[in-house]
Amino acid sequence: MEGNAFQTAFRPLLDCGILLAIGVLMSKRAVYLLLIALALLHQDFWLWDDPTLVLGFLPVGLAYHAVYSLVVAGAWYLTLRYAWPSDTEAFAEERDEDLPRP
Amino acid sequence: MTSLVIMAGYLSLLVGLGIAANRVFRGTAADYFLASHSIGPVLLMMSLFGTTMTAFALVGSTGEAYRVGIGVYGMLASWSGLVHVGVFFFIGIRLWAIGKRYGYLTQVQYFRARFDSDLLGLILFPILVTLVIPYLLIGLLGAGGVVQSLTQGAFPGTFAATNGGLPPWLTGLIVSCAVLSYVFFGGLRGAAWANTFQTAVFMLTGLLAFWLISSKLGGLAAASRQVFESHPERLMRADSVTQLQFFTYFFIPLSVGMFPHVFQHWLTARSAKTFRLSIVMHPIFILIVWAPCVLIGVWATSAALPDGSLIVPPGSPRNTELATMVHTLTTPVIGGLLGAGILAAIMSSLDSQFFCLGTMFTTDIVAHYFGEGRFGDRRRVLLGRSFIVAIVAITYLLSLTEPRQVFPVGVWCFTGFAGLFPLVCAALYWRRCTKAGAIVCVAATAVAWALLFRASGYGVDGSYLFLGMLPVATVLTISLLTLVGVSLVTATPSEATLHKFFPPANIAAHPPIETAAPATDQGERP
User: What distance lies between CA B282 and its chain's CA centroid?
Assistant: First the structure.
């Protein structure tokens, strides 16, 4: 695959990588925005009718979504780091013997 | 025959694992049904992954890639990496917290209490059971097709109708008995141990098969180049899936939020932090399993024998593409190992599903209607086991008459669960959501699902779309609109209920609850 074509195909995910880096520096809200951006980037319409093989064997549409899966894992790592639901965790651990059982 | 011996050895190993789990069984219902909330990060990660990846992931994805091309990865796998984990994070951890605090075992218990409604539980129970059964069928259908292909020629005289391969009815029976034995003896701990072992097996054997098949086809580049020359349409999505259809697959993985067996696995977690490993690794594991299967499916469209004939000719039996590639291109030992891997993927879902149905029957029907104190732990475990045996028998009998493909059956099953997703989401995050809204939502979802399922010829039309979209989009919209609409015009839940299920932001300021409304239909205040 030509270098320019490769950049065009994966540019949105590269942009998302930059967003990931920004997410590190920012907050819970930035992490949620990143997840929304990833949901939008799933629709790779620009690769719809492109049968090019990346690295000689991987169809570009599949390669994009493979990289996408890895970026998603990174995004979830950031979510754990910046948006961990500590209150919910504490709620579960709190002991109250008077609580009714179902 | 070699393949068969390896698969038989694998099944024996699993039964042994169930017996080993039985040795640490504490004899209590909480231990049998929830492993006493003792499951750590690795076991939870492997259990959740193994449970959500079934025949659908290995056999279904390969078969669908053979028919529609690489789009199948984006439609389900990469969406699942984002959506499944989103559900684990936003729904799973919260449900775990509530379940742990109030001692719930099942979804129905939670919804009954959250909406102060016995009726809701009564409606929800049969719907959840009905939706789990097709999911179980996916497993048995997948196992039957795969083992038949891998054992072809082993019994030429006995099973002539299946070219000497083990017939699906016999495979279904063997698989059902194997799963039943380790679930029966080991409870949820046995299932979690087996899931962990099986997930490792199917991931490793899948990679091994991928490597060997690509080698036999002349290497990765040669295998893909062959498809590029003869079936380039399989390397893109232009002719096989529309943009709208592709997008609406987003809704399918939401079904995880309402899977009863996943709910039960969430509750086994030792702590909230136990979820962390699953959350990061799940998308990576999906990539490791799905990408090779999709590539093998695409290669199968063009892979040929030395005489020029296709290895998987058009019109080959459904669900057999992966097994045929392995059987033809690798040795019987590898075939046996991969067969064991595929069975592992299938059984790692079957066990949890069988198990959760047993738990639901014991908790939501027997204990709820006949009284919590009426049955001791031993009798509850016995009842759970008996119901599991009954469900296994029913599913097995249904599998004998089920002629459809794995992929469409799976999509319909997920459609039903995804349609109920707004219910769990609203129950956890929307204080204004009411009992009436929840009941109407469940009923409307069931009716919409049934009508669309009928319109698709009961799943026979595998490419059925409604308004150009997957039916799940319509079912989910109806579910959401009825839930919101009815909730807004009906009475709000009682303060006690809201206080119980919606902890304040600062947990330290959360005062003890002195009273809570019982699970009756009188719990809402005007």
Answer: 14
